Amino acid sequence: MNTASPRYTQTAIALHWLLALMIVGSFAVGSYMVDLPVSVTRLKLYNWHKWAGVLILALSALRLLWRLTHRPPADLPMPAWQRRAAHGAHVALYALFFAVPLMGWAYSSAAGFPIVLFGVLPLPDFVPASRELAEALKPWHGGLAKALAAVVLLHVAGALKHQFIDRDGLLRRMWPGRD
Question: Which of 11, 77, 112, 140 sits at 20 to 30 Å (Cα–Cα) from 102?
Fold first, then answer.
């Protein structure tokens, strides 16, 4: 493991912001597409959403591997309850980074709609096709995505609290660029 520095590594920062953008974009597209009538646009958005989910899953694995092999900056002084809340939020984020796309993949497979990454690379079905299973999994994917959105909002609120109320430099540690 590397020694701690006052900032996260450039790789950790890049993975953080890339995943943040992809998750927000995927959530927005997912929320929009479900109410569209069957059309070419809806099918394109569903494919984009699936591709984003696969990339989010892969980048989450890379991010977790990076995090496990690179020490984060030392904790800033804060009350124990805030440290526990931050730790719990991070655990929830990482769990949901995997659970949401895996549930989406399972739902897509159960519904009989394979994922063909970028229209070129067919991915194996995650579960067998089953109308009953698809109906059972569909609300789980949406519910977990909403849970992820809620934890992301808490994460952002915590970062903004540290930036504008505590003024302790926490946000600067994950902000792109150099000090």
Answer: 11
Q: Report which of 17, 30, 14, 15 is spatially closest to residue 103, judged by C-alpha positions.
A: 30
Which structure tokens are listed for 107?
A: 């739902």
Average pLDDT over residues 127-133: 97
pLDDT band, residue 179 (cuts 50/70/90)? low
Q: How far apart are CA 159 and CA 154, in angstroms?
A: 9
Q: Round the average pLDDT of the chain to a whole number and report it.
A: 94
Tokens of 17: 């912001």
pTM: 0.92
Does residue 2 surpass a pLDDT of 90? no
Helices (H), the chain: 10-33, 40-69, 80-110, 131-161
Long-range contacts, 162-168 (Cβ 8 Å, 24+) = 162/76, 166/78, 168/76, 168/77, 168/78
pLDDT score recorded for residue 4: 43
At residue 70, φ and ψ (nearest 5 deg) are -135, 120
Structural domains in the chain, CATH included, are 10-173 (1.20.950)
